[in-house]
Amino acid sequence: MPLSPAPNRVPKHLRDVRYRSFAREDGLWDVEGELVDTKAYDLVLSGERKRKAGEPIHHMWIRCTIDTTLTVVAIEVAMDAHPLGECPLALPAMQKMVGCCMARGWRKAIEANLGHIEGCTHMRELLFNMATAAFQSVNQAFARPQSDQPPRHLGQCKGWDFNGAGVAAIYPQFVGWQAPKPGSTSAAAVASTSDRAADKPATDSASKG
């Protein structure tokens, strides 16, 4: 259902963000992001820098090459349009994201490697949501090595609530699932421990009573 009709208004700013993904013949994946900012009117930036209506203020690209664990094995970046001459100086730091994993700690890695003056605000924004595009592309990323663990996307939104209809219909074995608390022992481990204790011979002190 579309949005409701809007009152008379004047367009001002347009940001287009687009993500694409590609399966490569070498078994890796390319996830590409593109960001374009334009104004609906002629603009004079500070320092008498002029931009015509529709002329990009920002036009930036990122290509992350990832493996099936969503780990970045290569990254390529470009700035076709940017407001300041120093903006491209932020590009070399993007190589710090090689080796980072989109499945775990992605946002923290971006802030640690590209935060503040180390990077570019718009490149960081483009990187943040590349992880979502990667998850939509690499089906293996949803899998868990342990069969008793739910796929990573469960419990991350209302639609995949462990107590909701979606999980009940598609993953009934995980209805009501709760992650074990750190340091807790699983039922299987408890049973295994009990079995070992039962099989252990009585100690001398116990036998002597």
Outline the structure in words.
With 209 residues, this protein is an alpha+beta fold. It has 2 domains: 13-141; 144-201, no CATH class. It contains 6 helices and 6 strands. The protein has a 4-stranded antiparallel sheet with strand order 1-2-5-6. A two-stranded antiparallel ribbon has the order 3-4. The longest helix is centred in the C-terminal third of the chain and has 13 residues, at 187-199. The protein is globular, with a radius of gyration of 26 Å. Mean pLDDT is 85; it is low at 186-209.
What is the average per-residue confidence, as pLDDT, rounded to a whole number?
85
Structural class: alpha+beta
- The total of beta strands comes to 6
Straight-line N-to-C gap: 78 Å
List the defining traits of the structure above:
single chain, about 210 residues, alpha+beta, 4-stranded antiparallel β-sheet, two-stranded antiparallel ribbon, globular, disordered C terminus
